[in-house]
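From the thread on structure requests for the teaching lab: each student submitted one protein with a one-line request. Submission from student K.M.:

"Model Dipeptidylpeptidase IV N-terminal domain-containing protein from candidate division GN15 bacterium, tokens only."
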Amino acid sequence: MRILQATTLFLTLCAVAVTGQETYFGKNKVRYKNFEWNYIQTRHFDIYFYEDAYPTAKFGAAVLETSYVEVSNELNYVIQRRIPVFIYNSPNDFQQTNIIPNLINEAIGGFTEAFKNRVVVPVDGSYENLRHVLHHELTHAVIYDMLFGGAIGAISLQRRIFDLPGWFAEGYAEWSSRFGWDYFSDMYLRDATINNYLEPPEQIEGYIAYRQGQAMIDYLVDRYGIEKLGELLQKGKVHLTMARAMKAALNTTEEEFYKGFAKEMKRRYWPEIARRKEPDDFATQLTKARKDGSFFNEQPVFSPEGDKLAIFTDRRDYTEIVLLSAIDGRELARLVKGERSGDLESLHSYVSGMSFSPDGRSIVFVAKSKGQDALFLFDVNKREIYRRKKFDYRSIVSPSWSPDGKAIAFSALDGYKRDLFVWSIDRDSVRQLTDDRYDDGSPSWVKGSERIVFSSDRPHPGRPAMNSFGHPESDSGFVKPGDFDYGDYNIFEIDLTTLAVTPLEVGPGANRSPSVSPDGKRVAFISNRNGIDNIYVARLDTVEYQAVTDILTGVQAISWSPDGQKMAFQAFHNGCFDVYVMKDLVPAGNGGVLEPTDFAAGKYKQADRPGPRPVAARDTARVDTAAVRAVSDTTAPAQEKASTDTSAVRADVDTTRVAAKDTTAAQTPGESGIVGNDYVYVSKRKHDALDSLMRDVADTAGGALRKEPASFDSIPPATSSGEYTVHKYKVKFTPDFVGGGFSYNTFFGLSGQSFLVFSDYLGNQQIIVGFDLVNTIDQSNVQAYYLNSTKRTNYGVGLFHSKNYYVDNFGYLFSDRFYGFEGFISHPFTTFSRIELVGAEYFIDRRYYDIALGDTRRPRDTRVTVGTLSWVHDNVLWGYTGPINGERAKLSVSSGIDLFNTRNLTFSSVEFDYRKYWHIKGAFSAALRFSGGLSGGRTPKWYFLGGTTNWIGSRDLDSTVYDVENLYFSEVVTPLRGVPYYGLAGDRYGLINAEFRFPMVRLLALGFPLPLVLGNVMGVVFTDVGATWFGNNFKGVATEPNGTQHFKDIHTGFGTGMRLNVLGFALLRYDIAWSTDFNKVSDRPTHYFSLGADF
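Reply posted by the TA:
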């Protein structure tokens, strides 16, 4: 996944700056553990790992070097800089990375950061998933190197940047990493085409960019040739937009390209409507995705009584477990509310199911709790969690309660592999059932509680490794990197007494998600053998299996009813997942055999389509064959390790590995290829004077020669036994962003502005420097900060200096020299709550310049020590213009004192802010806010109310605003619309805001006077009630001589407004408000134009 770091890192500084005028919330990225990093080096990559993950790093080395040859060949390009790759041992660890500041949700399987071109991926227990995501992210890294020279920071001073669309970047990444087209994307495009949600290129965003983008890349390669991929990128560097690049490279327009693509999709998929069935043709639909606000209804499981189903759903935005009627889908109860607190940070509904106890009183599910996965036992009747069990595993999925109720089986990531375990509930002991490198999951008990059926990608004895459609992997000629077969899933059974594993004969294809029938005689599972994920049922005592669905899209997560007569499942339809119950378990298709899709039958494959080939057969880019051999050459004799200053380690030998794969290629010195243990490149060109600096690499597509840096040759290969030297990670600061400029003239002297950001490779430490140089240092603005997030408690220190000139409301000129140093400490308890401590010493030197014009004020020097302690809570979800669901709160206590002169400035204050949001339906929502504060001391803090945040317009400020105490230590509280900006002041305040937010304009296309398209324009109706006062002098209601009552210190405004997202990076707000004291309403409204999100 491509992620560009935000260059607006000053937000971090604003959070601790005394001049900040916004109350800051935000969720937390919690470092629940510390990581001690090491790394190994291959020819093109630095691969970072920690703890016992050296075998994973070796596997990654093989995958990356092999995949790099694929990508280099497809794009006709060789990288010019080494690519750093960071491998985290689990998704939970991965979500703690500081390489990017963004919070990482479960849907993100990896990312490539553009500033330093870093690839970051987690291990989830599946080597096939790891292979795929490494290859996927590598494509982004190669493209970044191609377009930006390896790091986007290098283009900070450039004005011309290719706007690479997401559909190409993500689509090509999927196309390359899945070796062209695959059955899963075939399912998605079939659904998108039939249900008419394909998007034109300029409107593609979100997840569809991956799937439709892959299809568009596949179409592009079929129609125009694979060489056009790299050519489009090269043209894009010149023409800056994909539309112009397409015209230059393909001689077509984006509109024509999409028209041809959409026509091809219709030709492919419309005939499938008559061949297969939609899920509601043969099953009862229990959930209504989109209509009820949900998109994901997942992992259904029957209750032991058979009349209820438990499912995961996001119908209320957050993932929850709800209880449904198995008859009509009515919601009977909300059982578990996830993603709101640290105890239930995530319910893992994407990857893990749940299970009822045999008596139906309890449910077991997995949740991430304070950074670590745990099993939760939930009492269905009491609606409460009564037991939480944590294990020392990196992740847990797929809990399954035994028929006798005494144990729970589950799959867990232990070290760098995923195995099966059984937890004895009464004895509170754990037994490990499998212990190997294969991905073992989806355990399902057989009646009697003595056997478990599960899915695994371990080899099936007597049968070669199979691809997704049941054909031997060797048919494609592609050799997967690694010294063992992986990624080809099948169904197995394990005996809990002997731990003997027996393969079940259930037919070809990728067979997953087994569910044993209540009588223990049959097993249902999901297989893609016809090109679509369908439900099959096999007998456990005979070799007999048949399909019971012939669905148009795909099935996931199946569950038997207690009587064995029905089956619940989730199915993909119209871009969402819904839950269905099927009653008639009869053979589908032709006696349980299904007609293959055109893709599964090979009808889409073009004769000249580049398919996966052995890596050694390619010579267009130099591959580190030692890296590939490090995990694939198991027959090489052991040799002594190279002697180095650092240690070399060797992975434990896996006794289940298969014979080494043949990676030989050209064997004569007259051509390039692998000779013995080395890759030999034989150049066809004469000597070049630059050969000492660059390495030639053949370019067969273009007939030219590209060059790899000679520095790549300085990296020693792996030893003959396939081992690498392991290096310790050392902190080294390198630039993330550098920008600015300088000028000089004889009158003003030297001037310039610069902004620099440095960080280490892990993103744990940052140095931020910004300065605005004007003639001399004492006239310049300078900020320098150091931020450290290495451990759970984050901290930062910094210093600053600024010189500002002001003209007050009397027209007098004065200046403030504002400088000092500050520090902060932030300790997150969970993703949703933290405490913050900010301390600073501020110096303010004020000088007045209009003495001759009557300004009699004397110079003033102020020294103030300020400290603030805050508690912050935030679990909101965001909509188009602001939070749409959840709540956030902040409570702060602060104090300031001049330690040099206690009679100068002294204050203390307490402030609170609570906000609650309700998502009504679709884009409709409501928001309510309560906030208040009070201050005391010799010079109490003032609170200014009125207007709206980031108001665009003139300000008529009172002279008191320019007092040192108010200019630097006051709080401006908004919104209070209907009242002028800074219109109210006091050392106490209270504010209530209520808003109803709704969609105003879905889509508006203008042809004149400007061709402008506006979408998702939001509207708002609001009421603001606020008051300020000094001390105890508050009078809420006043009575006129005629007896009429009205608000006095309480001010109220009401009105309406609209919100427009401008070009995707700025939110423009317009509000029109009237003020009222509940006796009369203002004659004229106040108009507000402002920028920023809603509160």
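TA comment: The longest strand covers residues 988-1006. Confidence is low (pLDDT under 50) at residues 1-23, 153-159, 607-705.
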